[in-house]
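pasting for ref
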Amino acid sequence: MTDADQTLMLEILKKMQGQLNGIQLKLGDIETRLTLVEEATSSMSARIASLEVAIAAVHKRLDRSDHRLDRIETRLGLIEA
């Protein structure tokens, strides 16, 4: 290889190394953003689970109230037993 060929190859390799460094930086940014998305998804899952528990508690209270209302209506003779 001549000196001109070696110089050209060196320039090409340096350019490729610069591009690779840019890609690595972008990949690092993407990994950080993906971690944030995963954390947000996990947080939303926990919130949904909490809401499901709260809704179940509301349903339980409504069922008890419905049962009490049925008993009151039966005692008052508003409905047949």
